[in-house]
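Input record, target 12 of the design panel.
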């Protein structure tokens, strides 16, 4: 199981790999809190499970830092091990909720929030918890 537990934070989350219910099932991942609420998910289904696992590893298991010159609602984070960058966007939906998404330089969205947040500070907290916080692997199932 892949877990995110932070000291001083009572939230616990885990990652779930699954096949979606499309006519031709695709592999996806989602981050779920212990209470069952989905915190984030892959943006698209992957025909090959290995591709989905790679997208998951890139987004969730990598060590990220902010590019210092970028701030605001659209910015870049940099992988501390590989130097690869992802574009992060905080945006408002038509229903006025805040969401985030992460994209590669080829504009492939690899992960996103699964709900709209009324307060931007709650969205930022979700993004930090899911993407910027180190996760630990107890066992890969």
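The sequence produced for target 12 reads:
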């Amino acid at each position: 199981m892949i877990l995110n537990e932070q000291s001083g934070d009572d939230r616990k989350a885990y990652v779930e790999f699954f096949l979606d219910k499309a006519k031709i099932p695709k592999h996806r991942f989602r981050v779920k809190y212990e209470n069952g609420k989905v915190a984030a998910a892959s943006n698209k289904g992957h025909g090959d499970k290995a591709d989905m696992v790679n997208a998951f590893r890139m987004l969730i298991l990598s060590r990220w830092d902010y590019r210092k010159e970028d701030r605001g609602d659209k910015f870049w984070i940099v992988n501390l091990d590989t130097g690869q960058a992802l574009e992060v966007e905080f945006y408002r939906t038509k229903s006025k909720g805040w969401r985030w998404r992460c994209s590669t330089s080829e504009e492939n969205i690899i992960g996103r929030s699964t709900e709209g947040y009324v307060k931007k500070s709650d969205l930022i907290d979700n993004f930090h918890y899911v993407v910027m916080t180190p996760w630990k692997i107890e066992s890969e199932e």
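The radius of gyration is 15 Å.
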